[in-house]
Amino acid sequence: MTEKAEFRSGMVALVGRPNVGKSTLMNAVLGEKVSIVSRRPQTTRHRLLGVHTTGDHQMVFVDTPGIHQSKKKINQYMVQAALSALEGVDAVVFVVEALKWTEGDAAILERLGEVGTPVIAVVNKVDRVSPREKLLPYLEELQGRFPFAALVPLSAEKGDNLDSLLGELEVRLPEGPPLFPEDQITDRSLRFLCAELIREQVFHQLGEEVPYATEVQVEHFQEEEGLVRINANILVEREGQKAIVLGRQGRRIKAIGTQARLAIEHLLEARVHLELFVRVREGWTGDDRALRELGYEG
Ligand SMILES: Nc1nc2c(ncn2[C@@H]2O[C@H](COP(=O)(O)OP(=O)(O)O)[C@@H](O)[C@H]2O)c(=O)[nH]1
Ligand SMILES: [Mg+2]
């Protein structure tokens, strides 16, 4: 006779240097875009939860901004948010990029030595490695750097080998009831997710420093029958940046609005009317009060 296994639930922190694919990995596991992604580092600014529930377990992933060195206040906030995610979790997933090892990776691994929880190394972006045998010496080296509980090569983008990771994580979760209702996929509000989808377009469509000087606030969010009306402010630090976000004859802001609206419609499964305004808030990335007002606590 087999006994039915007890339900397991727990928290899993995703850490790694910027741009290794932490947010892509979380979205891939959830099958839903909860955390925004871009080709550029430091896209994720806040720690946010992604909840993955099946019939026998609930894993609560903590996506974090990448850990890196910086003097800028907003960057220090992000590093703090990432490090605090290590507290009280049941497992840590340390994400690196296949065939790459940098000082940034090494610095984070040093910090992980202090946490008592099992650390699983995910070697992401293996879709870029061909032939696959090239990965073997890299995996061996990685194994020598830290007593990892497991090593999982995968591709977050292609969805390859995610099951191995889930299997490694599941056995490390304690038995216990779910921490969140089973239909909940994140701790963040729809308003927050919509603001993030707009910010993602700023990252996709504008180069240089502008995305790093940008914040998005949803001012108005109203659901009507079959339609959601959203007004949002795009905050920048200087007039010159405002001109860039607007673009010639307002073309850039229009394109940002169109793409963001499509992404939001996909998320909300509803028609969306989106209005964007660009405003200047001088020096907000270096100002404690402004940061607090904009939701950067810590
Ligand atoms: N080729 C490839 N690219 C990936 C993979 N996972 C993530 N990326 C890309 O890496 C970049 C950074 O991803 P993101 O999830 O924002 O990284 P994060 O900063 O660690 O959260 C994005 O351009 C992703 O599309 C993968 O498995 N394969
Ligand atoms: Mg991220």
UniProtKB/TrEMBL annotation:
Residue numbers spanned by region G2: 42-46
Residues making up the signal peptide according to the UniProt record: none
Ranges for region G1: 16-23
Ligand binding (GTP): 16-23, 63-67, 124-127
Keywords from the UniProt entry: Cell membrane, Cytoplasm, GTP-binding, Membrane, Nucleotide-binding, Ribosome biogenesis, RNA-binding, rRNA-binding
Record-annotated KH type-2 domain positions: 198-282
One GO biological process term: ribosomal small subunit assembly
Region (G3) location: 63-66
Cell location: Cytoplasm; Cell membrane
Assembly and binders: Monomer.
Protein name per Swiss-Prot or TrEMBL: GTPase Era
Native source organism of the sequence: Thiohalorhabdus denitrificans
Taxon lineage: Bacteria, Pseudomonadati, Pseudomonadota, Gammaproteobacteria, Thiohalorhabdales
Gene: era
